């Protein structure tokens, strides 16, 4: 896949001049569009944004200054270089005060032209990078390195690899901690848009009233706190990717606006009636079943169909337990600071394999990080694995340890109770006070049960 081309709009009323300009720029593999007057330029700009505009100062009807104003109001990152005859240099300098990046006085050489374009594009790149750095995703700086060899995981990964280089809208579904954000990162960094920003919005963490301005930006004075014009994420992400995390939380009020953007690429800043355009690929993620949300009237069906052109369903860790050893090794290497990565002993690994992992890969990552800190030497042992005791999943794994009894099997309640109480007692080294708390029964009842089931310490 070719790199996303840089787009340049060249505007000049002298057509022969424009043709030369076009051929020089195309030789450099820029994507070029031309316009022969200000009105034509504005028309083009209303349909697509550009990275850079080469703008003649003097043109009939609408001149360069007006086009510059139009651009500055709408496309904050687009760089403008004024082209001017010697007699208009003064105007060109004024244009710089209005926000043009630089000017070139005619006649100029090919190398002067290319040099100023390079500098202007570098400035744009830095502007965007600065903003992207502030984005949530950049802070997390997740390496798009995905571990797993199980069939369930490899299937999703292979589908992800196939859709990554396209512009397709992708919905990532999966329980909490299964790696949705990691996959979003993977999709972006394996796409032709990877040099452009990946901006993330967590729809659950932002108050409903602010989501629109986060996404689409606002004009100065649009509401009380809007003291200056603010670019929305769709604008900053232009040419790149927008990641809508926890997309099920987008309010019914906001959904039509998002839908319209998905359909047309058009949006409006809050407090403005001007349509803007941006070209972003949308990746969204949720741990909810969006069809159910649709059925419950909380999510628009038409929006769902726009978002889930391709759906990646991430398996839970429980469904791919064979990947646990690989993941453990990976976390010991990457998340733990040690000269030599610590190792895990066989009993501890066995326990990890039995546990149910309601928090999925994130929970495993935390358990390993904590264990590595707690362990006193190069080995992580059962005692270092502070797995949450008393959760259903732990009960299950303890039950398995104790007598091969699986919950939900053909056992009477008292058989399960016996195995369970025995398991909990063992897990807390027979501290009856703690066991009673975990079991939610009184100490007296616990003693009674121990007698009744004939439980002993060894
Ligand atoms: N396949 C994997 N290989 C390596 N690390 C992984 C993998 N999947 C998840 N992780 C790690 O697990 C942690 C949780 O992943 P991530 O934040 O992507 O999950 P999520 O599905 O977005 O979770 P939530 O629903 O809670 O937002 C991250 O630190 C991530 O790096
Ligand atoms: Mg997430």
Topology diagram in text:
Blueprint: E1 7-11, H1 15-27, E2 31-35, H2 38-47, E3 52-56, H3 64-74, E4 79-84, H4 89-97, E5 102-105, H5 110-134, H6 136-140, H7 151-163, E6 170-173, H8 180-189, E7 198-202, H9 208-216, E8 217-218, E9 230-231, H10 233-236, E10 241-245, H11 255-264, E11 266-267, E12 276-277, E13 281-286, H12 290-295, H13 301-307, E14 310-313, H14 324-334, E15 343-344, H15 346-354, H16 360-374, E16 379-380, H17 392-403, H18 413-427, H19 432-439, H20 443-452
Parallel strand pairs: 1-2, 1-3, 3-4, 4-5, 6-13, 6-14, 7-10, 10-13, 15-16
Antiparallel strand pairs: 8-9, 11-12
Bound molecules: adenosine-5'-triphosphate and magnesium ion (MG).
Plain-language structure description:
α2 runs parallel beside α3, α11 crosses α13 and α17 crosses α18 (413-427). With 458 residues, the chain is α/β, with parallel strands linked by helices. It has 4 domains: 7-127, 3-Layer(aba) Sandwich (Rossmann fold); 137-313, Rossmann fold; 316-387, Orthogonal Bundle (Helicase, Ruva Protein, domain 3), CATH 1.10.8; 388-458, Arc Repressor Mutant, subunit A (Orthogonal Bundle). The chain has helices at 15-27, 38-47, 64-74, 89-97, 110-134, 136-140, 151-163, 180-189, 208-216, 233-236, 255-264, 290-295, 301-307, 324-334, 346-354, 360-374, 392-403, 413-427, 432-439, 443-452, and strands at residues 7-11, 31-35, 52-56, 79-84, 102-105, 170-173, 198-202, 217-218, 230-231, 241-245, 266-267, 276-277, 281-286, 310-313, 343-344, 379-380. The protein contains 20 helices and 16 strands. The structure holds adenosine-5'-triphosphate (ATP) and magnesium ion. Magnesium ion (MG) binds at residues 180-181, 245.
């Amino acid at each position: 896949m070719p790199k996303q081309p840089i787009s340049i709009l060249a505007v000049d009323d002298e057509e022969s001049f424009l043709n030369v300009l076009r051929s020089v720029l195309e030789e450099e593999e820029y994507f070029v569009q031309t316009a022969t007057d200000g009105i034509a330029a504005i028309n083009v700009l209303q349909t697509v944004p550009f990275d850079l505009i080469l703008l003649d100062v003097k043109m009939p009807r609408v001149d360069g200054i007006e086009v510059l104003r139009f651009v500055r109001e709408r496309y904050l990152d687009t760089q403008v270089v004024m082209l001017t005859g010697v007699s208009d240099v003064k105007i060109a300098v004024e244009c710089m005060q209005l926000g043009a990046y630089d000017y070139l006085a005619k006649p100029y050489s090919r190398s002067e032209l290319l040099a100023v374009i390079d500098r202007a594009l570098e400035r744009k790149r830095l502007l965007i990078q600065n903003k992207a750095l502030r984005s949530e995703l950049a802070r997390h700086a997740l390496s798009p390195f995905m571990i797993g060899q199980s069939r369930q995981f490899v299937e999703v990964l292979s589908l992800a690899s196939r859709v990554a280089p396209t512009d397709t809208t992708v919905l990532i579904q999966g329980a909490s901690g299964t790696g949705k954000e990691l996959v979003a990162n993977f999709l972006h960094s394996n796409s032709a848009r990877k040099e452009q920003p990946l901006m993330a919005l967590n729809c659950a963490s932002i108050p409903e009233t602010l989501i629109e301005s986060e996404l689409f930006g606002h004009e100065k004075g649009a509401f009380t706190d809007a003291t200056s014009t603010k670019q929305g994420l769709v604008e900053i992400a232009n040419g790149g990717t927008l990641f809508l995390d926890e997309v099920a939380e987008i309010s019914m009020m906001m959904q039509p606006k998002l839908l319209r953007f998905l359909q047309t690429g058009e949006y409006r800043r809050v407090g403005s009636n001007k349509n803007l355009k941006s070209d972003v690929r949308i990746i969204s993620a949720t741990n909810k079943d969006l069809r159910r949300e649709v059925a419950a009237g909380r999510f628009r069906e038409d929006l769902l169909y726009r978002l889930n052109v391709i759906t990646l369903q991430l398996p839970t860790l429980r469904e791919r337990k064979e990947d646990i050893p690989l993941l453990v090794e990976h976390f010991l290497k990457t998340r733990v600071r040690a000269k030599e990565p610590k190792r895990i002993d066989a009993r501890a690994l066995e326990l990890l394999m039995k546990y149910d992992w309601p928090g999925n890969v994130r929970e495993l990552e935390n358990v390993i990080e904590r264990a590595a800190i707690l362990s006193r030497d190069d080995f992580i042992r059962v005692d270092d694995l502070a797995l949450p005791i008393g959760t259903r999943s732990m009960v299950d794994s303890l039950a398995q340890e104790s007598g091969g009894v699986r919950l939900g099997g053909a056992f009477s309640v008292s058989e399960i109770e016996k195995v369970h109480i025995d398991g909990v007692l063992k897990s807390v080294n027979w501290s009856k006070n703690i066991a009673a708390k975990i079991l939610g029964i009184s100490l007296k009842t616990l003693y009674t049960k121990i007698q009744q089931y004939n439980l002993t310490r060894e």
